Amino acid sequence: MSTAQVTFPLAPVYKRKGIAFHQALATAIFPEGSDSMASPHVQISYTDEARRGQSTEIAYDYLINATGPKLNFGATPGLGPDGHTVSVCTAGHAVEASAKLQECIARMRNGHHQTLVVGMGHGTCTCEGAAFEYVFNVEHELRQAGVRDMADLIYFTNENELGDFGVGGLVFGQQGFETTSKLWTESLFRERGVRAILGAHAERVEEGVLHYEQLDGTRSELAFDFAMLLPPFRGAGLQVFNRNGEDVSSSMFAPSGFMKVDAVYDAKSYDQWSAADWPKTYESTAYPNVFAVGIAFAPPHQISVPRTSPNGTVITPAPPRTGMPSGVMGKTAALTIFDRIKLGNSAEAHQASMATMGAACVASAGTGLTKGSAAAMTMYPIIPDFQEFPNGGRSLKDTFGEIGLAGHWVKYMLHVLFIYKAKARLFWHLIPE
Amino acid sequence: MDNAAQSIASAPLPTKKTLRQRQSLFFQAGRFISINARIMLMVLKGSH
Predict the structure, then answer these.
(1) Which structural domains are found in chain A, ordered by start?
(2) What is the rounded CA–CA span in Å between residue A418 and residue A326?
(3) What is the pTM of this model?
(4) Contact list, A187 vs chain B (CB under 8 Å)
């Protein structure tokens, strides 16, 4: 797909809906006001061409922090487009990655064997599903180009086993048997001839060489010709100031930069984790008129079993919370604000915990209307509840996975629907999250 | 062979019938409806 098929200008959409739009970077929150403005406000710095770099303050009655992640390439020296690897986290990154992949394919056509690495650029990354679909799309491209036999394709991940996806793996009911996402994913890796390096933390990247540590504490090097490694995520890095101008960022944000909401953040061991730890309303505990949704809220802990190497390096996927759950959280916060404007601040908050929420994930494994394929998965709930579902923590009836052409059709249909919805076209609100 | 390679090497491969079904337009039309129904079920379960 071209950049034009996945991006569009936001200003006309907001103008049509009568919403004031500022293309800007939020830099600080003043939830109690400041000397310059008595009411709560956000300080922003414009990023559009006309006003780039100019700052202003926007007053608010309610604030939703939906910044998404800061791409923390700096966590691993040499990682990212400014280093020695490519990324697919933005449309621009994906275009660059595609060009580099085509150069790699051209070298293979000239008879040069190539090593391609796809995966996670740090031991605490999330979004394993995105790397999973990218590695199988690359594999598909290599076959289409007729150079598959010239490539060593390696999936490099912080997951302890394939099929973890940052959600601790899934147990499916399939044709009268229980099977696991591990077996299902390994089968696809075997079928497509993709190697895997598991439980790995990228320590640093040099030109053509990835240095990494694994959960058993061993340190190794991997030479590559092409590497797409996703960065770990951080919060956007907003500062918070109280009425006296004192920095109180730690009252609203976790050290990771994500906003603390109504979750249980007490330090607990894995066997003490509970589905009830996860937030329900996404309200800041410090200021209840402030919400954080999607990647912007601080999760109470991982979903996958936490693991550390003998050297003390944390190698565990962070919990995924993009896509469908993000949409549901955003809508939940909006409904709460709507009720409070209409009924007053005592109106009860709407709830949408990831512990009672289902999710669908469709991971592309190759494009084409008749030749494409994708892995379609659903899970319920997202956060395993071992008390309600002792066998695997999730409903066997509602958790499933399937690979095939239909998955690609579903992926394409969802793409068209979500772009339509994001443009707020006629009946957009009927399209679910 | 490391543990990951061993585990992948011992994973079951799809049969020729399964591979045909994964690309069959007729069969996949039915799966398209089924997957969408399952996703809608997740949407309903996520509605609060």
Answers:
(1) 3-70+234-303+319-343 (3.50.50.60), 71-232+357-427 (3.50.50.100)
(2) 13
(3) 0.94
(4) 11-14
